[in-house]
Design goal:
With about 450 residues, this protein is α/β, with parallel strands linked by helices. Helices cover about 55% and strands about 10% of the residues. α4 packs across α7 and α11 packs across α12.
């Protein structure tokens, strides 16, 4: 699939080389290659002289394996084998550990211990909707505040929707500001007898109902958690707002990653529109796993027609079949209609032994198939495979054209599909080369 000349190309190397670029966020729907793209960008930027850290949220741990690291955790680890003057570090977000670090950093020892041991907090930190996306933004803010790396590459969480990454801080803020939380916080804020009176009178109906639905112990755990977290709620919102502003800053670049499929590009279109609405800098679209062909001038229709011609020729062009074989095997001077003497009823003369010994060995062997039909059959199969490939290319082209028609201003980089999975630095380098538009094998699949 070739890019329309009217579509601006995404220039990856200038983006990576620009010292003003401090954050690159790879976003998109799940399963489109965000992790591989983020890792390849990190490798290429490091080998071009940048000091890079890649933050991934990939639970499959493919990033660690491809970078030759036994495991990744919440601490950046340097990647060995980088060719160049730069450095590459990688880490994998530990959602719960990041939440624990926030509590430990913003609460005294006794209150932090009470929060960390609270059952409701343990459930919230491990599985509350949007927590992973929020913690990814928290970790991004922490990394940027350290100012230790020239470039931070973020692989956003594998959410069902790419918009979850941008919506998470607002969702968590809405939860912390919600009426339910404010109601639970009221007794702790009032304190003393007034607080107890409020709790016994003003909340008696609500707590009784919730106690029946959720269980009295669960409700007490929630109230204890809210009381302990009261002073930290404002900090969550403040940091989320600060990170959101960081994503809007000129030093940040968003790369929307998609596959040449209808659902993935529809999601990419939604995300492009959302970034524009939020005033966030979009660098372009990375179209992953694009198929190509070295014989694109041969259309699917012509390939199928040629395959049918070859197959029909293979069926008809059989010569005289086994009649011709029998004629070739008959002795010279013998009549084809003459009965053949049984081998067991005649004794060969001494001078005939060398002639009769060979037929006795070769007789049981089956006739080898004619070479020409097998070549035709193989050629026809290859033509049909090519026809299927051209159909895939045509479908991908139509899908991409729909996106570019909606967003003609978005630069696009196409990455041709590799024959296998990426599992080492060499594979990541190949992806980086293709991202930069330097595909050494154009049209490779």
């Amino acid at each position: 699939m070739t890019l329309d000349p009217a579509v601006p190309p995404l220039e990856v190397d200038p983006l990576l080389d620009d010292p003003q670029t401090r954050i690159i966020v790879c976003c998109g729907s799940g399963g489109v290659g965000k992790t591989t793209t983020a890792a390849a960008l990190g490798v290429r930027a490091a080998e071009r002289g940048r000091k890079v850290v890649v933050l991934t949220i990939d639970p499959a741990r493919r990033l660690a394996q491809s970078m030759g690291i036994d495991s990744l955790d919440n601490t950046p680890r340097q990647v060995k084998g980088i060719e160049g003057s730069g450095e590459l570090h990688a880490m994998m977000l530990d959602m719960k550990r990041t939440f624990d670090e926030i509590v430990e950093a913003h609460a005294d020892a006794d209150r932090a211990r009470a929060i960390l041991e609270n059952p409701f907090y343990q459930s919230l930190s491990a599985g509350f909707a949007g927590t992973q996306e929020y913690m990814a933004m928290e970790k991004l803010g922490q990394l940027r505040a350290r100012d230790e790396w020239d470039l931070i590459v973020v692989d956003t969480p594998p959410s069902r929707s790419a918009l979850d990454f941008l919506d998470a801080p607002k969702r968590l803020g809405s939860f912390l500001d919600g009426k339910f939380i404010r109601l639970l916080m009221a007794p702790a804020k009032m304190g003393g007898r007034a607080g107890m009176k409020f709790l016994n009178v003003g909340m008696s109906m609500m707590t009784g109902t919730l106690g029946k639905l959720l269980g009295g112990q669960f409700l007490r755990d929630v109230q204890t958690f809210v009381a302990a977290m009261d002073t930290m709620f404002g900090g969550f919102r403040t940091r989320a707002d600060a990170t959101y502003r960081l994503l809007q800053a000129p030093g940040t670049a968003f790369l929307v990653v998609a596959a040449p499929e209808r659902d993935a590009l529809r999601e990419a279109a939604y995300f492009v529109e959302r970034l524009a609405a939020e005033g966030m800098p979009l660098a372009g679209l990375v179209l992953n796993r694009v198929h190509g062909s070295g014989a694109a001038r041969l259309s699917a229709e012509r390939a199928r027609a040629a395959a049918e011609n070859l197959e029909e020729g293979r069926i008809v062009d059989q010569g005289r079949g086994k009649d011709g074989v029998r004629e070739a095997a008959a002795p010279a001077g013998s009549s084809p209609d003459a009965p053949e003497a049984p081998e067991a009823s005649r004794t060969p003369e001494p001078h005939e032994e060398s002639q009769t010994s060979e037929p006795s060995i070769s007789a049981p062997q089956s006739e080898p198939p004619s070479e020409q039909p097998s070549v035709n059959q193989l050629t026809a199969g290859l033509l049909r495979l090519h026809a299927e490939r051209m159909q895939v290319l045509k479908r991908e082209q139509r899908t991409r054209d729909r996106f570019t028609a909606l967003h003609p201003e978005v630069p696009v980089a196409e990455v041709t599909a590799l024959p296998g999975d990426v599992h080492d630095l060499a594979g990541l380098r190949i992806i980086g080369v293709r991202l930069a538009g330097e595909d050494p094998v154009p049209g490779a699949s």
